[in-house]
Design a protein that fits this description.
Strand content: 15-25%
Structural class: alpha/beta
Strand order of the largest sheet: 3-2-1-4-5
Number of helices: 4
Order of helices and strands: EHEHEHEHE
Shape: globular
Radius of gyration: 15 Å
Length: 150
């Protein structure tokens, strides 16, 4: 079975993730059933949001929108910040021995809403380059990493 590793740097946002990550799974999960999926999510708690949300609420929302068959892994360590989150996500991929030229890696921002429903496998098959990470979204069609090197 092919493996798909989805990486998300997330912050606490209440039920906001149902509109972004939830929509991703609503639109694309039916096309991803041939994959063994690992969704690794780093959850940061910025000080300015701690009065309104918490990581347990955020994990509950994720658990309610991510399909049961997806291997969901949360990283809940201190020291918020995008670069730190990125490093923790990559370290977790290494720790779980999920590095392989045959695996697909998809960078999925927690606040990007998919633009439309389509067969995402067509994109994966078209852009199947070794050592790349895919990221597509409504607000940044090529993603913050431009689908570039992982």
């Amino acid at each position: 079975m092919k493996k798909l590793v989805i990486l998300t740097a997330s912050i606490i946002r209440g039920d906001f993730h149902t509109k972004s990550i939830g929509k991703f799974y609503e639109f694309f999960y039916e096309y991803l059933k041939e994959y063994e999926i690992y969704h690794i999510i780093n959850i940061d708690e910025p000080k300015n949001l701690k009065n309104y949300f918490n990581k347990y609420e955020t994990m509950h929302v994720y658990n309610s929108i991510i399909p049961e068959k997806v291997n969901t892994i949360f990283i809940n360590e201190p020291n918020p910040g995008f670069l730190i989150a990125y490093k923790k996500l990559i370290s977790k991929v290494e720790e779980l021995d999920l590095i392989d030229d045959d695996y697909l890696y998809y960078w999925l921002e927690d606040d990007w809403e998919p633009k439309s429903k389509y067969d995402i496998n067509k994109i994966f098959n078209l852009l199947n380059y070794q050592n790349s990470c895919y990221a597509l979204s409504k607000n940044a069609p090529l993603g913050s990493f431009r689908g570039g090197p992982f």
